[in-house]
Predict the 3D structure of the following.
Amino acid sequence: MLVQEFRKKSNLGISSLGILMHIEFKAFWRNKNILITQVVQPTIYFLFLVMGLGGALGTITYFNMDIQYQSYALIGVMGLLIVSQMTQTIYRTTIDKRWGLLSLKFLSGIKPFYYIIGMSTYPVIGFTVQSLLLYVLTLPFDLNISFIQFVIVILIGIISLLFWTSIGIMITVFINDYQKRDTIIAMMMLPLGFSAPTFYLAENVPQYINIVASINPLTYQVTAMRNTLFGIQDHFYLLLAVGLTTLSLICGIWVLKRSNLVIKEN
């Protein structure tokens, strides 16, 4: 049997997802440096950026509602965390490529869809921990955020995160030169995070910023999360966020199915 045929016929089924999730779960909790970073990053964002700007801006108007700027910017921080978690997927997938684990997993019967979801476990845990920490940080400041609604926001964030993890896996598979890959990722992070309305209001900025924001998927993901938090009955952005994730997963599956099993990581 040819290698290509073996790859197509071998199939661990959904059990492969459990195996991958277990591996990634253990990897997350064993990496103490990453754990420290996951805690420090949202804490600094909230205490110095959100609360600092909130003290200056006070109350703002969003969809004809008067809300505290801190609550508005809180979702912006979650948006930044979603994008930053993509680097964790790239890091984990790079390890798979470098040591031949990516090929081994595919030959063992792990299908591309399960691989993408399984490799998203690491960033999903990180994002969930960071989001819950953000909620705890809001409590002393009386922002009046419903915990139930916030949990729903986290779930939307996880759906959005799958979009970025799929992108991260595709980037890792496409680009074998790690220096080139790191350069591209470094150049992407700031524009992605700050061209979306993470901290600014669309009606208060120059038109060119809104034009750039309109082609940034994070714009629609952050808006879907905000609308849910503030109880705005507009499901367009939520459907768009789900659609973007679905499209990204389909593209990721297509790329992984056609990826070279013999991959050289430079």
